[in-house]
Design brief:
The complex is a heterodimer of chains A (339) and B (509).
Chain A: H1 27-46, H2 53-78, H3 86-102, H4 107-131, H5 136-155, E1 159-160, H6 165-172, H7 182-200, H8 202-212, H9 214-219, H10 224-249, E2 253-254, H11 261-271, H12 283-302, H13 307-334
Antiparallel strand pairs in A: 1-2
Helix pairs in contact in A: 1-12, 2-7, 2-8, 2-10, 2-11, 2-12, 3-4, 3-5, 3-10, 4-5, 4-10, 6-10, 7-8, 11-12, 11-13
Chain B: E1 18-27, E2 30-40, E3 45-49, H1 56-63, E4 71-76, E5 79-81, H2 86-91, E6 94-97, H3 109-114, H4 129-142, H5 158-169, E7 176-180, H6 188-203, E8 207-212, H7 216-221, E9 224-229, E10 232-238, H8 244-252, H9 256-259, E11 270-279, E12 283-291, E13 295-300, H10 306-313, E14 321-326, E15 329-331, H11 336-341, E16 344-347, H12 351-355, H13 362-367, H14 371-374, E17 375-376, E18 379-380, H15 382-395, H16 412-424, E19 430-434, H17 442-457, E20 461-465, H18 469-475, E21 478-483, E22 486-491, H19 498-505
Parallel strand pairs in B: 3-8, 3-9, 6-7, 7-8, 13-20, 13-21, 16-19, 19-20
Antiparallel strand pairs in B: 1-2, 1-4, 4-5, 9-10, 11-12, 11-14, 14-15, 17-18, 21-22
Classes of the chains: A mainly alpha (339), B alpha/beta (509).
């Protein structure tokens, strides 16, 4: 165990530390790691196209929008909230970004406008949730429709393809001489930062506290509302970034970009072991879950399995992720108490 | 002290209605009761007294058929029997009124009474509303309880809900009525009414088992008293043979002074002052001061406004008018964060809901209120974090397998020590304790108050709220009473007279 480094185990994790396992890498994470290795080996054996640099580049580049949004969703769900509107923010900011470019606004300013728009969209979600004490599930089902609706009003069924070449290059290209997309590097940097904040930072520990018990947190002087609004803003901002990068990746800003993506994001977070009810989860688990789902999807793509079959497989995985811990807990609870 | 049980005072000729002999029950590794004996005669009021964890509820649940004993015998009307379920208990004439009213708040009085038995039907098998109404009036008349059958139960006072519970519990063939802590939330006047009802039942030959720990009304009413401690009956005898002092000694197994020691503390300057504190509907015109090193006890019944006042000081609820002064200067507190900036700490009433994050570890809970001071550049310093946990676990004597143990795995007393530790880590100057020993066994109570005593010696200004009057009077330097949101009398001279304090907190001046 490498103590005193940023990756040393936090003391606050949701589980009891057993047999030297750090709290952010428990039984669930090990199961996921085993699955990832298993699926990767099987995919590599079954098709020669899987374990190739170009497949990595294509897969990593294609999944980046989803992967980015997994980061804030993990924090938000650990805090006991959810944001169903991310894919709509993703679509809307792509559209607004496209319109800005079309209207001749310089690229950096357009990017900033997109990010601010995402932050505002997230703030509205957070404010409605906190100020009226509403379930975020309900609030963001509403804004899911609202934000997507605005995207359609702005662009209708048009698409904007004339995006600046430096932007589409960043979204699509790999680092020179490698198969690593620029966006992948961006994701890794953001994920590492988020993992450190969540598992080592005061903010992360407050996030766990808010998700475990908002009442105790408030009584302990933790600014529960501010933390929740911050996380919603983060969720909106990252969805905006993902939406713009995706528009660049496909060279097309359309109102229907990313429709339904929120469900994939939530599925990955749940498969990663984050509790539906907040207070439990680890970034390692979610990252492994993201890798697992991506590898499975890539394998199924190479095997030319239809999307419906792919969705079925992911659905089964997600149900397993929700059911297995409950069953495991029942089994361990039914053991007789020791004196 | 002798562990043998002295049963005296009843004529050998009377046949016991219910007799419990050598009953034991364990839950997992925890022994709830062991070798418990109690005998109940028709037409007697029998008081079963014990601290939290003495095994009272387990005994009640055995008699109610909810729990089955592991050993021992139950005799009802001379027959040794097993009470398999609550229905069987009711068939034997045993009715139980549980501590917290189990009523349907959105239904009327008559509907609530209806559900106690099979609802009457018309010939068309629809509900016979006339009969529902008439039955409820008849049931209430038996006890001379006058409630409007059409009133929604949520509009009733706590006392009336309690009476409704008794009406529901009683049937025509009730032989034994068990009342579990029936007076905990009642005012003096309401208790008097309840006592009248109990007297009436007694004259009808019903045996009444009165379970509780408040002593005053017991001596007014009980024929016999049984005291249990740590799951065993300690002594049983006619009420006349007991005094309040002797009961307390039996309850806790030692004298009050040894359980709640009072440290000698040199009092400092006035540190906290509350002026004209008002929140409509909760409390009005509250004025008091607390000096450094002083423990100010707030006495009152549940609902007297004491918790609301402390929530107001800590910024959890808005205050309509009035101000808080610290060190003579008015301060503005609109949230717990502000209160903490002014070095106020608040150990809330409901430990499991408000005090501790149950699904997290001890160290997580201990650091919760000081995360920012434990961090540099937003990252929690793991060394300081570990030292903090180790330090408070040691200083407060938390019995645990280690700082990473889940707090939910600890006993109530040890959980409360962690919650206290969380606040002591903030280096407070003002400490508000709201019922800090609720649901905690006697040993842990004593430890909690020893910690509080050390804090007073360290110069903290302490406000203590407790529903256990004996405790409050033992550890406080000064006591102020509250009744229905109004400030009552102030008692400054130790030792306090519990009779006078009780009279004041029940609205009699």
């Amino acid at each position: 165990m490498s103590t005193q480094t940023l990756t040393s185990p936090p003391t606050q994790g949701a589980k009891v530390r057993r047999r030297g396992l750090p709290t952010w890498f428990g039984a669930w994470e090990i199961s996921l790691l085993v699955l990832v290795v298993l699926v990767t080996v099987m995919a590599s054996i079954s098709t020669p196209y899987f374990a190739t640099g170009s497949n990595f580049a294509i897969t990593a580049g294609g999944v980046i929008g989803l992967a980015l949004m997994v980061i804030p969703m993990t924090l938000l769900m650990i805090a006991g909230e959810i944001d169903l509107s991310i894919a709509s923010v993703f679509g809307l900011t792509g559209v607004v970004f496209g319109l800005c470019i079309e209207g001749g606004i310089p690229l950096p300013v357009s990017i900033v406008i997109g990010l601010v728009l995402g932050a505002v969209a997230g703030f509205i979600n957070g404010w409605l949730t906190v100020a009226f004490g509403l379930p975020s599930l309900v609030v963001t089902v509403g804004t899911l429709g609202l934000y997507r609706g605005i995207a359609y009003i702005l662009l209708e069924s048009r698409s904007i393809s004339a995006l600046p070449v430096e932007f589409t290059t960043f979204s699509q290209a790999n680092i020179y001489g490698t198969y690593i997309p620029y966006t992948f590097v961006l994701f890794v940097l953001m994920a590492v930062f988020a993992a450190v904040v969540l598992h080592r930072g005061a903010f992360g520990r407050k996030t766990f506290a808010v998700g475990s018990s908002a009442v105790v947190s408030r009584y302990s002087g933790i600014p529960v509302r501010r933390i929740k609004i911050t996380l919603f803003c983060l969720s909106g901002t990252v969805a905006a970034l993902a939406g713009m990068l995706y528009a660049g990746y496909v060279s097309s800003a359309r109102a229907n970009n990313g429709t339904g993506l929120e469900l994939s994001v939530i599925a990955i977070v749940l498969i990663g072991g984050v509790s539906m009810f907040g207070g439990k989860g680890s970034f390692a688990g979610v990252t492994l879950s993201l890798v697992l789902v991506t590898v499975l999807t890539s394998w199924m793509n190479l095997g030319f399995l239809p999307t419906n079959v792919q969705n079925t497989v992911i659905g089964v995985l997600m149900i397993a992720a929700v059911v297995v811990p409950v069953v495991a807990k029942k089994i361990s609870d039914s053991r007789p108490l020791r004196a | 002290m002798t562990e043998s049980i002295a049963v005296t005072g009843h004529e050998a000729t009377a046949t016991p209605l219910v007799s419990v002999a050598g009953v034991s029950k364990r839950f997992g590794g925890v022994i709830a009761i062991k070798r418990t004996d109690i005998t109940l005669y028709p037409g007697e009021v029998h008081a079963l007294l014990g601290e939290n964890g003495a095994g009272k509820s387990t005994l009640v649940n055995i008699l109610a058929g909810i729990v089955q004993p592991d050993a021992g015998t139950l005799t009802v009307n001379g027959d040794t029997i097993t009470i398999h379920n609550p229905h069987a208990a009711r068939a034997l004439g045993i009715s139980v009124v549980h501590q917290h009213p189990v009523v349907f708040p959105d239904l009327t009085v008559a509907e609530n009474i209806m559900f106690a038995a099979a609802p009457p039907r018309t010939s068309l098998h629809t509900l016979d509303w006339k009969a529902v109404q008439a039955n409820s009036i008849r049931a209430m008349e038996r006890l001379q309880v006058k409630l409007d059958p059409r009133e929604l139960v949520q509009n009733l006072s706590a006392a009336d809900q309690q009476l409704l519970e008794i009406v529901k519990a009683l049937s025509d063939d009730t032989a034994l009525l068990i009342l579990d802590e029936p007076t905990a939330a009642l005012s003096k006047h309401e208790v008097d009414h309840l006592m009248e009802v109990i007297r009436r039942l007694k004259s009808q030959g019903v045996a009444i088992l009165f379970v509780g720990h408040r002593l005053d009304e017991v001596f007014e009413l009980a024929d016999r008293v049984t005291v249990s401690r740590d799951g065993t009956t300690i002594i049983s005898g006619p009420a006349a043979e007991f005094t309040p002092e002797s009961v307390v000694t039996h309850l806790v197994g030692r004298t009050l002074e040894s359980v709640f020691p009072k440290e000698d503390v040199e009092l400092g300057d006035v540190h906290l002052e509350v002026r004209d504190f008002t929140r409509k509907g909760a409390y009005e015109n509250v004025n008091f001061t607390v000096r450094k090193g002083e423990i100010l006890g707030l006495a009152g019944l549940v609902g007297a406004g004491r918790t609301e006042i402390s929530r107001g000081i800590f910024g959890l609820d808005p205050v309509d008018s009035g101000e808080v002064l610290i060190g003579g200067k008015p301060v503005r507190i609109v949230g717990p964060g502000d209160a903490m900036k002014h070095k106020i700490a608040y150990v809330p009433e409901d430990r499991t809901r408000e005090g501790a994050v149950l699904e997290q570890s001890i160290s997580f809970n201990l650091s919760l209120a000081v995360l920012d001071t434990l961090s540099s550049f937003g990252l929690v310093k793991s060394k300081s974090d570990r030292e903090l946990s180790a330090d408070y676990i040691k200083r407060l004597g938390v019995r645990t397998s280690g700082p990473e143990q889940l707090i939910s795995a600890l006993s109530g007393g040890n959980q409360q020590k962690v919650v206290l530790g969380k606040w002591l880590a903030t280096n407070p100057e003002i400490l508000i304790l709201d019922d800090p020993t609720k649901g905690v066994d006697v040993g842990a109570k004593s430890e909690v108050y020893k910690i509080v005593g050390r804090m007073a010696q360290a110069g903290l200004a302490i406000i203590l709220i407790s529903n256990e009057l004996e405790e409050l009077l033992s550890v406080s330097d000064r006591v102020i009473t509250f009744y229905r949101g109004a400030q009552g009398r102030e008692f400054t001279e130790r030792p306090f007279d519990s009779e006078t304090v009780l009279a004041s907190m029940t609205g009699q001046h």
